[in-house]
Amino acid sequence: MRLLLINPNTSAGVTQKLDAVARVAAASGTELVSVTAPRGVPYIATRADAVIGAIVALEMLSARDGSFDAAIIGAFGDPGLGGARELFSVPVIGLAEAGMLSACMLGRNFSIVTFSGALVPWYEECVKWHGLHERCSSVRALNEGFATIEGVQNEKEQRLIDLANRTADEDGADVIVLGGAPLSGFADVICDRVAVPLVDCVVAAVKQSEALIALKTRSPKAGTYRQPGAKSSIGLDPFLCRMLAGIRE
Amino acid sequence: MRLLLINPNTSAGVTQKLDAVARVAAASGTELVSVTAPRGVPYIATRADAVIGAIVALEMLSARDGSFDAAIIGAFGDPGLGGARELFSVPVIGLAEAGMLSACMLGRNFSIVTFSGALVPWYEECVKWHGLHERCSSVRALNEGFATIEGVQNEKEQRLIDLANRTADEDGADVIVLGGAPLSGFADVICDRVAVPLVDCVVAAVKQSEALIALKTRSPKAGTYRQPGAKSSIGLDPFLCRMLAGIRE
Amino acid sequence: MRLLLINPNTSAGVTQKLDAVARVAAASGTELVSVTAPRGVPYIATRADAVIGAIVALEMLSARDGSFDAAIIGAFGDPGLGGARELFSVPVIGLAEAGMLSACMLGRNFSIVTFSGALVPWYEECVKWHGLHERCSSVRALNEGFATIEGVQNEKEQRLIDLANRTADEDGADVIVLGGAPLSGFADVICDRVAVPLVDCVVAAVKQSEALIALKTRSPKAGTYRQPGAKSSIGLDPFLCRMLAGIRE
Amino acid sequence: MRLLLINPNTSAGVTQKLDAVARVAAASGTELVSVTAPRGVPYIATRADAVIGAIVALEMLSARDGSFDAAIIGAFGDPGLGGARELFSVPVIGLAEAGMLSACMLGRNFSIVTFSGALVPWYEECVKWHGLHERCSSVRALNEGFATIEGVQNEKEQRLIDLANRTADEDGADVIVLGGAPLSGFADVICDRVAVPLVDCVVAAVKQSEALIALKTRSPKAGTYRQPGAKSSIGLDPFLCRMLAGIRE
Amino acid sequence: MRLLLINPNTSAGVTQKLDAVARVAAASGTELVSVTAPRGVPYIATRADAVIGAIVALEMLSARDGSFDAAIIGAFGDPGLGGARELFSVPVIGLAEAGMLSACMLGRNFSIVTFSGALVPWYEECVKWHGLHERCSSVRALNEGFATIEGVQNEKEQRLIDLANRTADEDGADVIVLGGAPLSGFADVICDRVAVPLVDCVVAAVKQSEALIALKTRSPKAGTYRQPGAKSSIGLDPFLCRMLAGIRE
Amino acid sequence: MRLLLINPNTSAGVTQKLDAVARVAAASGTELVSVTAPRGVPYIATRADAVIGAIVALEMLSARDGSFDAAIIGAFGDPGLGGARELFSVPVIGLAEAGMLSACMLGRNFSIVTFSGALVPWYEECVKWHGLHERCSSVRALNEGFATIEGVQNEKEQRLIDLANRTADEDGADVIVLGGAPLSGFADVICDRVAVPLVDCVVAAVKQSEALIALKTRSPKAGTYRQPGAKSSIGLDPFLCRMLAGIRE
Description:
Six copies of one chain form a homohexamer.
Chain A: E1 2-7, H1 12-25, E2 31-36, H2 47-63, E3 70-73, H3 81-87, E4 92-94, H4 95-104, E5 110-114, H5 120-129, E6 136-141, H6 152-155, H7 157-171, E7 175-178, H8 186-190, E8 198-200, H9 201-215, H10 238-244
Parallel strand pairs in A: 1-2, 1-3, 3-4, 5-6, 5-7, 7-8
């Protein structure tokens, strides 16, 4: 199985984190390729950023069409996920989606804990888009600055542990999803200091990719994710343009 | 009042339709500027198209920052609306949003009627994003091809009238929102042949823009639509890059 | 355009406030007539009061049938709105409805802030009746007495500013709807001291009336707001009796 | 126990039906008084009618304050119920409410079946007001005229049986609530010809009144149904005016 | 009327409490039989306990098939209620259900107050199963140990009064349902010291049983509660085995 | 990884089907043990059956406590799942849950298709219990008898294909979950003849088990699934009794 992990942000350090965690989680025989966005923002925080992340995600996937059996959109919030599912016939999985669906098997209610309040509105919209708000107790974040996106999990380790425990206690969360690609691998570090199970979204995404591959589903010939008709375009990324035009590898 | 109407699609013919209808609806003293997307797809139908429409909408607005008092995103489905509200301090209104909110004052339940089944999944997601699904009876579309996007309302006139009446009857819609920029001006043509009130989204969007201007609201200093902190970016449209960097006219 | 603004309460001072704000908001060419309830209660606070306000609203509108192109029910909570829409073929808009729908374009979530806790239960029912609870973060009120209904906005100015800011902060409201006719014009006074945009419901209602007029909708011949069949009655207000009997100007 | 059954409609024939059925259902020792509205409409069908029914219900109850231990508002749709609960310290029960809550113990989902399509919008709003829409499969009605309100159950007997069976089959209703005071006693007539249990709302309302009396609850000193403060009024029914003024028997 | 009250827990002391309260509430002519579970747990707190309570409830009812006109499952949370309704043609009522439905007539929102935090998750699932979460403000419990299940209401009297008042105040509950069979009869003891009405679930269940009997409904021949086809089984309680096999008294 | 698959029904033929499909799906290194219920019913169809399946599931798991790293409850509807999660510190996954969560990554909306109408009410309750009703378009079943539970997929092959295609078309399902352990392996047989992707719940459950193991979560020390305190019991299965008593391997 060839698994493509795209980081729709431009931070190569975050890609390295994602790749390292994914590599450990992947079953033997999985060929993992991780790539960093060639354009965009260092990390996606807001709805505006998510618009950018979405187009970049589609471009990155288009450029690699035919070279992967499943793909992970490596940004919590899952930018471009719906569009990617229309354009590509292989499974595409979002980091947030994989984390939340996995969390549903570990508790009645999950909460999302992340490192920056700027992420909360978009994350909340993501929960609703997935129709999982009934299972989500809260989205909680630290309300303070941080030095670097790559180092945020070390810098805020105790603060995030405290927030996770407070969230479990105050919001009735049975399980906590650590939100945001920069927190990849962090669950493993802090799990003994948080009272409820923690979900690492990258691990979840890798295993959910394997699950979808194992289901051996056919591409939809009906339904809202069937491949749309060919469409012309102007001034778009050439790979995306090809995908829209219905040209497939 | 300077009102900017952006068509995030590349079809100039649709922009002309939008502009003509908007011009009639606008209060005296409104200075209307309508522009067509310089890049993108001829019309937005799918979720993938909407990703493109969203980035194009942000680029078009960014290129004109400071030149308008309010803006309309002239595509039903409101691509990029959330992001636009973060980046711009003046009101930005979506076509779908304006049409649906106006419909809420004309009936208990509205339905959306449009000309192509390809639009339905995205429109349904749009209704949910706006939190208006409790008021929406259905999203209905013709399931057949059409010749040109500019001419679709003429070509399908009777078919759309029949669908609108059937939707009112079968789905319990008190009012019908005509969905899709290519149907601009169509409500006026068919209103005497449909049993329930019809909403023309362009008219609605112009009047809602005026309503927001009249409210003289201050830019938010808190809440999820307050302007985000400045952010660097790579390889993006220069105007959008400036907006993200916090440089304002 | 002839716009009728009825105050279903007996406080003429509140009518004057409503009228003054509405007059400024109205487009040139709008002929505004504001009237005070000839019977009822000084201000509507409870569900029982709302029953009275509803019948008084229908009576006031019936007495003026044929003399207006659109009407505003000038009490937050929108007493009698559904019934009015059945009986009258021109647009009828509620103060709460106009404020809430306008707020939807200014933020993800709105809260309603008002001056008396007695109003909260009815306001909450109003939000649900409109199907807008998913967009409404909270309904908040001062829990204390006040001297006069006409002077309450002056008397409680700082207390309401504080409550509005606290509501934005604690309840995640992106925008605040100032609830209650006695707060007409208050948004303009305090807007620079509240961190999120404020909606003045009277301004909103005037502009929404203009929006509905601009849509030039036909009266429904189907749906739940089509005019009901003629009905006899006993002992009711003669104008309302005429309306029920299907006699129209 | 003194039980007051008010018919907020002016049809004495319907009151007789209600009274006859209630009398059989009442426990020994219950003193039942049934009264017909002195003013209003012959039967409540629309939202506008419901406004009238609500004020008439409050007037009828006010005129008899102190003479009853519990009261039933004998019109499906429960006009004035919320207001009545504020003003009166004894239990007040609605016909629709009693029928629906009882139905919840007889099936997963109930449907409401009634004799006139004009009633459906108001009934649907009633279901939502009570927060019971998750349990309600549908509100269904005959779409045809009828000769007299008192005779409608005889005239439409077979048509209503057919509709009830069709509703159970097509809408997945486990139990059917017969909606509308004119259908009092009808469940007993047709129950052997309908495939699912039927709820007679008058029987339900009498037994629910007894249930509330048996609970011996104290009047609320807090919460949204505590008695509101005394309020002046102008031009209202003298008994209602007294109640609003806080004067109690 | 022969009314069977089963306590699916093994605590005879709780059965005595239930029986004593039920006996007072029952109408004259009601023959009440109360029985204690012959196997199971002393009291049901968790979801695992509820699985046990459910099978025990079905066994206890099966052993007495034909000997009762209605039955009450005397444990808050209503273990086995859905299954019992399928197997038995007479009304079966749950303690939680009866309490919550009765509470709906006493306030807009109810809260459930109980003595042990261990009960909360199951109670919350019970509220959702009944589709009554829109009416339920909260489920609240003391977070502390207690000496004996039979004596808990005396031991915690003041603590529960304080919690009930705090719940009314903080959660906006108009009425409080006292949750848990061990709190039978407690409402009567504390009602003058709590600001909102209290519901005793046993009283409610007895009166709701009488209400269902008064409705004289026929057994469903359609719908999800019609009696299932005969089914073989292995190793089950002999009475339950007979019921599943379709053998009825 | 030692994976326990329990079939809470007494049909060994169904266990064989489950085992065969699970064995293919399992990663290398997984040690799979499949067991058939020693008591209960041949297959779980109704809510009453589900009560039996739930207790049998807890008994089967208790008897094997300490011998598995994860367990699958091999009946669609997930009997006893909540209770099992409380009692066992290793992951326990339900067949329905695994199928539905996997389906969420393959489409906007899923439908459940099964072979017997008797299953529908319980399946619908299962969807709601998991809080996934917003993602579920419908639960559909054949309405006809079948010869044997083991042979039902062969017997009804074409009928189920037709139903699946009709469900996709009429209910807007993007993906179909084949419901019921007897349909194990059936997706693979019919996938080329159904227009939308199909989910085989056993495959899904095996892969979800592996996903949860990969997450290496700690047992909850807080939240609603933390292990309950030790509890005495009477007359229960000795292994379950031990689990309740807090005795662990």
